[in-house]
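User: Show me an example of a complex going from sequences to structure tokens.

Assistant: Sure. Here are the input components:
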Amino acid sequence: MAAEIGGPKTGAARHSNRRRKPNPRIDMTPMVDLGFLLLTFFVLTTQMREPFALKLDVPGLPVENPPALSEEKTLTVLVTGQDMIYWYAGREWGSLERTTLSTPQPFRGVVAERRAYLEANRAKLGIREDEPLVILLKMTDDANYANLVAVLDEMLISKQKRYMLLEASKSELQAVRLYESSRNEASSIRAALQHAGV
Amino acid sequence: MPKAKIARKSTAIDMTPMVDLAFLLITFFMLTIKFKAPESVQVLIPNSISTEKIPDRNVMIITISDNGRVFFGITDPPMRDRLLRRMADIYKVRFTEEEIKKFSLLPDVGVRVQELKQYLNVKPTEREKLNKSIFGVPMDTTDNQLDKWVIEARRASGDKLALLIKADQKTPYPVVRQVVNTLKKQRVNRFNLITSQEADPRTAVAKPEE
């Protein structure tokens, strides 16, 4: 009916004596349908969050474990599963401490503390001015990829330039196990004491 | 008292503004779109604060799924072509020209070279189903095909390819270590781990104090 503007009147239109005004409104529904279909398609296929690269340099082979480092300036981090990390300063792997990598990020404090300690005691420890803190990241079999990225990310956040990705040694794994079992013991003793009403 | 006459309103709504908006959005998405690359396996990448851009060309990507399957892919189709010819020579597998063409359209490979011929001849629709059950590129000490893929890709490209590792958050570390060690033996010591961005806590913490 709308297609007859200006053209010779044919059929039914000729019989009506009142000239019908062509309706300028077009039914836009199919266009809208199509529009939203395309919109949905683009929304679903588009990749909004662009991925980024986290650089990782690993020591070449063969790995000396750890390569000629003055022990005092190192901080060793053992990365295990469940976001748990164990750390010790220098070579005292007997005195492990446990923290977590999830918020509120107590590990950042550890790095800062250790750096401050190193700066304050350079003369006493016999460490040269140009030797910064070195963090040894030691992975265990229980860790997953997210844990690895989390510690590397911590290095980036703490602006720690010197770190190395290594493997945990047997004695370190043993230390972790000992730490856990002594913790369990301590908590069971505590529970027993509480139970006894002490 | 006569009732007030309520005018009957037409139910037709003016859709023009909505359509305007819809088409505006379409235009926006069409212009900004960067299609997701088709992948053989879906991985959920971890977050980091890194803002280092990833190159779109001249890269090889090693994808490791959450259950430890390894996929190897390179971005440029002509390079894939050359790479497959080299691999075919090494493993003494004959590929027809058609199969090589099919291979150059694949984003990555997750089967043994010996099984690749069979894999290529599967219909694309069925391939998706197959991708769930394939074992990935082998990395055993006796048959380290990942090693060969990377070496040959580096040779075919004149060592121009950057290496990206894309692994799932849940990927067990021993698999990652195996991949890293394989590459270390080739003196590849620089890796790029693909991560999605999260807010830098240094700036995020600084804001509320202001």
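The lines above are the inputs; the final block is the predicted structure for all two components together. Chain B has eight helices and five strands.
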